[in-house]
Amino acid sequence: MSGLSIKLKTPHTGEYEQPTGLFINNEWVKGVDGKTFEVINPADESIICSVHEATEKDVDIAVSAARKAFEGEWRKVTPEQRGKYLTKLADLFEANTDTLAAVESLDNGKALSMAKGDVAACAGCLRYYGGWADKIEGKVIETSHDTFNYTKKEPIGVCGQIIPWNFPLLMWAWKIGPAIAAGNVVVIKTAEQTPLSALVAANLIKEAGFPPGVINIISGFGKIAGAALSSHMDVDKIAFTGSTVVGRQIMKAAAGSNLKKVTLELGGKSPNIVFADADIENAISWVNFGIYFNHGQCCCAGSRVYVQDTIYDEFIKKFKARAEKNAVGDPFHNETFQGPQVSQLQFDRIMSYIEEGKKSGAKIETGGKRVGDKGYFIAPTIFSNVTEDMKIVQEEIFGPVCSVSKFKTKEEAIAIGNNTTYGLAAAVHTSNLNTAIEVSNALRAGTVWVNTYNALHWQLPFGGYKESGIGRELGEAALDNYTHIKTVSIRLGDALFG
Ligand code: ADP
Questions:
Q1: Residue with CA at minimum distance from ligand 1 atom 16
Q2: For the chain, which end, N or C, has fewer CB atoms within 10 Å of the first or last residue's CB respectively?
Q3: Beta-carbon neighbour count of residue 120 at 10 Å?
Q4: Which residue range or ranges hold the Aldehyde dehydrogenase domain (predicted)?
């Protein structure tokens, strides 16, 4: 690996070996153009290292490696063996938790305890899909006595997968798990802000015994490597998690090339609705977790909080006190809940939304400013006195910023909850079962949480209504996005046609 890995240190693990190359065909290689790019530590703005950059030519090479694996060795691998590879990979994730989590915290800025949670969820997800690999089955369908019909679920083929920077490892596992279980091969492009943990995990792919070319991992920029992957004529499917703006571009690229299958998991502006009959202390904890978990960098963040008018004043007072208790700081400190935003660009975007909110007349209850003078830290921010037409209520901020406003009736709560172009998630807090079910049914969102938030689990499908996406990840549902149904119809008997 000479020249394609370096020794780095994290405060949690001490020294470790960081791969920096492109992982193609189970080998570490440099990009054809010899380009590299710098990776920044968001907690102190220092340069961690440089990694090799994939350009169009490298995407071609990775796609051919994947194609060769798909048409060759990988086809002969039994479903049971695919499951074993995934299960082994899950075991290796667990065995390497400390290093994977520390690299994630270093590169992304999330608190180490949260990064460890992500690694555990990666292992859970990979093991779950390992279990699915030999349970993907077709049907026998009877139409008449002289025909025998059956369906088979076949892999789609070479899958391009483009992942974001907010959960670099978890999105990697969400993408690899169902794709591999169903017998596909993949080329994954990580986000340019956070390439490091996926490269560490690439070594585990080799260790788990996957044949060369089945899982390829490249670092690179969206407009270059991402665009090349989504418009590639030999990629059969593209799966993307990221912003709605880029999701549209990916769909256009797929439409303008070979009409590859598309799944998109995009943005959100999720409502978090608190009724007066809710347990207020619990509701506040979940509202706090709903928006500030992962520094607000969650597509399902509960960024629009709606509180029934009779408890509004008490709610604001207590929520403000709760948000001010969140420990913001060094991701490697034990007590830290919220680390830095991922990049200068994200920091600037969030701060400009905060300015925009102030200008439009919203009131800052708490936060609204940077924390410290180094690193991209932003104080947990609550806006009140907002109206539905404000940008901060309509647009995804992707930071630790929420708006709180009042509603009177259940009907009003449903109407404002649905007053968005997005539809990824929503939550309802109430002690009344009828309210919980009625409101959950009426909300146009892929996931509705009741008296909880961010209760994601690899067994539960996740994805968006409206402009939050197409298709579902996780659960059995994700397998549908990675399989083609083939219908085989056999004419029985010897009757002549016509
Ligand atoms: P954000 O705006 O939060 O950075 P993006 O949606 O831009 O999120 O990025 C998510 C992923 O999409 C990253 O891996 C990024 O490199 C990739 N990406 C960005 N632009 C494009 C594009 N035009 N085509 C394909 N992928 C892209």
A1: 222
A2: C
A3: 15
A4: 28-488
Per-residue model confidence as pLDDT tens digits over 229-287: 999 999 999 999 999 999 999 999 999 999 999 999 999 999 999 999 999 999 999 99
Atom of ligand 1 nearest to the CA of 192: 16
Closest-CA residue, ligand 1 atom 24, reads 227
Q: Is the pLDDT of residue 221 over 70?
A: yes
Ligand 1 geometric centre to CA of 240 (Å): 9
Q: Report the nearest-CA residue for atom 18 of ligand 1.
A: 222
Domain 5-266+464-485 class, CATH top level: alpha beta
Within 6 A (CB) of ligand 1 lie: 162-164, 189, 191-192, 221-223, 226-227, 230, 242-243, 246, 249-250
Claim: this prediction has a pTM higher than 0.90: yes
Q: How far is the CA of 487 from the centre of ligand 1 (A)?
A: 36
CATH of 271-450, picked from 3.10.25.10, 3.40.309.10, 1.25.40.10, 3.90.550.10, is 3.40.309.10
pLDDT of 276-309, one tens digit each? 999 999 999 999 999 999 999 999 999 999 999 9
- Asked if residue 2 has pLDDT above 60, the reply is no
